[in-house]
């Protein structure tokens, strides 16, 4: 079993290193933007990207997940048939969707409230959507073929190009927020060109209508769930803009993005996790394997959470070039929401861990129920709390929605594919997390949260993991020795 976990660990490290490097470089754009843009401009591009993320799901309509599902169980030439059918279908539908977007681009511009002087941004968004969609199937194919290094290199160069263009266009040519979209477009062009040899190598002229029916049967029920999942992540953006304006939205999103490091950890794990559980689903000890992975993952996630929850604010307030801070001074008023955002992503980690049963038993029709419920909860809590407590209301709404999402997926996954998790350890992990969160905000609001107090909380937190037998020192040493990352 440890050999299986070892395989997952190695692939997670490779995907993780590339994504950590890539996302960290991308993460550097947050303080950069906070230095060069005012709050309302930060709100402008945050609103556009919220809609872009929603449209990304529509453009791919679950075909990447369906491709991974059916190629993983195909053999020989059937693998190429699945790839070709998926790729041709996505290419045709992407052209169709892009044409529709061009026809309604004025309406879209009004929807995202872009000034007419920046209307070219809509064209950039459509091109980004088209190119990124064409890259999704080839990227999924690299994951299934266990080629994390190539995947990682392309992703890292993509982000490097994006960042380089941002700095050049904004600092060198004095562009405004349109530079963000031009940079993204340049990076998207590179990714598709880099993947082109793999596309040609796997593409055949064989298009299978029967395969397409299977793909669509899996993909289309997946679409509402995917849309709802993005809805959960981003519905706070238009709601806060509507209730409080782009200035407050910019403050909220700049600080919300500081929680990306937990999201990053979960995402890079998921890159390896999805093909891993699909490829090991037929193993006799698969359920035990998935349970052990869940416990180990949550232990690591819990340790990462406390470090970021305690010290993100201190890192953001580090000064350079005189009185400048890492996060622009116009944005530091929102740092208090970061621990709640980080906690939200811990529950997103649970949601990812509970996905095997739904995939393995082909019960994707329940994704919309789970994510739809979470989206409804998100909207309700946002509408109730944002007018009363501002951006903290948006953060709490996100936390509640992820709790609903992980709980709902756990229920359906256990119903069709029961896994005996180590509930005692998982409960203890969340008990320590919430106890620490409550203590953090109590000390914060009485103005007693000094750097010394934060280190004391960290020591108590780590000691709790040992005293509550969540992870003994010997177990950690044994785990490191066996997995040998």
Main pleated sheet: 2 strands, antiparallel
- The strand order across the widest sheet is 1-2
Question: What radius of gyration results from the CA coordinates?
Answer: 22 Å
Number of individual domains: 2
Strand content is under 5%
What's the N-to-C terminus distance?
Answer: 15 Å
Low-confidence stretches: none
Shape, per Cα inertia axes = globular
Number of helices: 21
Note the run of SSEs as H and E: HHHHHHHHHHHHHHEEHHHHHHH
Quaternary assembly: single chain
Q: Helicity, in percent?
A: over 70%
- Report the structural category: mainly alpha
Mean pLDDT: 88
Number of strands: 2
Describe the structure.
Helices cover 81% and strands 1% of the residues. By secondary structure, the chain is an all-alpha fold. The protein has two domains: 1-19 and 235-485, no CATH class; 37-220, no CATH class. Helix 1 (2-27) packs parallel to helix 8 (148-172) and helix 17 (367-389) runs antiparallel to helix 18 (391-416). The two termini are 15 Å apart.
